[in-house]
Amino acid sequence: MRLDKFLKISRLIKRRTLAKEVADKGRISINGIPAKASSNVKVGDELTVNFGQKRVIVKIEKIQESTKKEDAADMYSIVKEEKISDSNRAADE
């Protein structure tokens, strides 16, 4: 499944167009490798997503073509969530 579609269906990011923008700006990596919106994701992959002041690392548990709001969180598990300081962000860019 495409990265942007997974982010939307799992509700990590609310809109697919926003997921595409975030990925194309280099704020998402799959298993430590920078990813584009068209990158494929599979079960077991670890996604690192940088949201402004926060970095979230999630592991993909399952992939579904569509899901209900209540079931979306079952598609991934949060490995780590951390606040990004200005010095850490500068080092990442």
Automatic annotation (TrEMBL):
Keywords: Protein biosynthesis, RNA-binding, rRNA-binding, tRNA-binding. Residues 1-61 form the RNA-binding S4 domain. Gene3D superfamilies: RNA-binding S4 domain. InterPro entries: RqcP, S4_RNA-bd, S4_RNA-bd_sf. Transmembrane segments: none annotated. The keyword Metal-binding does not apply. GO terms for molecular function: ribosomal large subunit binding; rRNA binding; tRNA binding. Key component of the ribosome quality control system (RQC), a ribosome-associated complex that mediates the extraction of incompletely synthesized nascent chains from stalled ribosomes and their subsequent degradation. RqcH recruits Ala-charged tRNA, and with RqcP directs the elongation of stalled nascent chains on 50S ribosomal subunits, leading to non-templated C-terminal alanine extensions (Ala tail). The Ala tail promotes nascent chain degradation. RqcP is associated with the translocation-like movement of the peptidyl-tRNA from the A-site into the P-site. Belongs to the RqcP family. This is RQC P-site tRNA stabilizing factor.
